[in-house]
Amino acid sequence: MPSVLIVGATRGLGACVAKQYSEQGYSVYATSRSSRTPDLGPKVNWITNVDLGSESASKALLHGLKGVTLDITILTAGYFATESFDEPNFENEVKMYTISAIAPVFLVSGLVKEGHIKKGGKIIILSSESGSITLRHEKEGGGNFGHHGSKAASNMVVKLLSLDLKDKEIAVGAIHPGFMRTEMTKNVGFDKFYDDGGAVTPEVAAKSLREFVDTFDIKMTGQYWAPRGPRDIGTAEPVLGKGLPTPLQLPW
């Protein structure tokens, strides 16, 4: 029975991915930031108190995975706070960088060194098209420095991990899962863009992600992809042109 780890599975995309994998017959291991967990069914094995904002996250994760080897590891945990040039927020920026670009290094390093990720394993780190420097455009302007910067840093982490793990035949990829109708996007006021931006439910995005992961392998390691293509990336056509494919490999 194949096994999958979902880091950040209590709500939104992470919860949907965990539930869908369990319905597909996978052994599912899922993390929560606290001791509270949602009911995603009896086949989901919870590892609690894995807070990616804390230095103890890797230790808590490894403790909960004793004796487990993984085929797929997906890091979906994230944090999004808006800010402007006039009102940047130091605390929020540190939190975004920590969760998106610092914690993944320690989690992946620990998982590999402790033998939890198999040769031929896949590691997917959820990024965003917002982390692409190439796709930044006057159409959307500046601001949200911590969000964009932390995702760009996350992409760099993916590239470096892919180089470190290539000899072990472990594939590492960065994924823009799509613009989603979640608590996270609603809480920062992005629900006003849902209709025009083509936002989908987490269930739909989770299905697209799983289907992409099925095709992802060592030949694609170190790459940055949008499984749902350009449809919800407002700057894709102005920057990359028309007639773009789905899935779409994104530029750094």
Question: Could you give the topology of this structure?
Answer:
Layout: E1 3-7, H1 12-23, E2 27-31, E3 44-47, H2 57-64, E4 70-75, H3 90-113, E5 117-126, H4 145-165, E6 171-175, H5 183-187, H6 202-215, E7 224-226, H7 236-240, E8 248-249
Parallel strand pairs: 1-2, 1-4, 2-3, 4-5, 5-6, 6-7
Antiparallel strand pairs: 7-8
Helix pairs in contact: 1-6, 2-3, 3-4
Instruction: Please give the radius of gyration in angstroms.
Output: 17 Å
How many β-strand stretches?
8
Distance between the termini: 35 Å
Low-confidence segments, given as residue ranges, are: none
Strand content: 15-25%
Shape: globular
User: Which strand order spans the largest sheet, edge to edge or round the barrel?
Assistant: 3-2-1-4-5-6-7-8
Give the number of helices: 7
- Helical fraction equals 25-40%
Order of helix and strand elements from N to C terminus: EHEEHEHEHEHHEHE
Largest beta-sheet characterization: 8 strands, mixed
Quickly give the structural class.
alpha/beta
Averaging pLDDT over every residue, what do you get? 95
